[in-house]
Amino acid sequence: MLEIQQLHFSYDKKTPVLNGLNLTVQQGDFLALIGPNGCGKTTLIKLICDLLEKQKGSIKLDGLDHNDFKVKNAVLYLPSDDVLPEFLTGKEYINLMLKMYNASMDEERFHRLVKYYSFDSALDVLIEEYSNGMKKKVQLIAAMLIDPEILIIDETLNGMDVESREITKLLLMNFSGPNKIVIMCSHDLHLLEEMCNKVVILYQGKIHTEKKIDDVRQTTSLLSIFRGIMNHEDLKNEIISS
């Protein structure tokens, strides 16, 4: 279980990005994390991954602090920026990631993933020659082989062709299960509604909405909820004045 309590963070120590955020994510949750730009999604992810130093509050996985080595080894983050070591080939990158996470190579699964993505001819090519979609594929192949307890995905399906997106959707939904936590950020609300079983919407550094996706489907949609947030008067004024 991932437990976040009274989490505060500010980049300038004046304007809060996260303001006393509380969140519990259970094993088995495939969580959609959404909100307006600047609401703190990426900041929250980086704090969970110990890429930023929290200023107040706690982040724990199964009772262990987020900067404990066991927790760091259990969390894998696929960022949106596609910054990969371009001097490595795809195969070298995959082997490096496995080594970093102390994970062994499952040859059968490796070849199956390579086949799914038609990636065999790209394995020995330098990453500097990869398209954005190819970079996403090699990241996902590595992630599926590492098999982390918590997988955090930030716009990972961007840049993929339709077939690769469908393959990735199936892989991620198959990956999620009773012993896993998946947290996914995307501007594609229909995709999130299709894949996830829970949604958290951040607004002004706090959780605005937290629902099961099944409950959302029965009464409304993620898009309708998000539009409702965007209709807040203070946010409309901010948009008009910007």
UniProtKB/TrEMBL annotation:
Transmembrane segments: none annotated. GO terms for molecular function: ATP binding; ATP hydrolysis activity. It comes from the Bacteria. This is ABC transporter ATP-binding protein. InterPro entries: AAA+_ATPase, ABC_transporter-like_ATP-bd, ABC_Transporter_VariousFunc, P-loop_NTPase. The keyword ATP-binding applies. It holds the Pfam family ABC_tran.
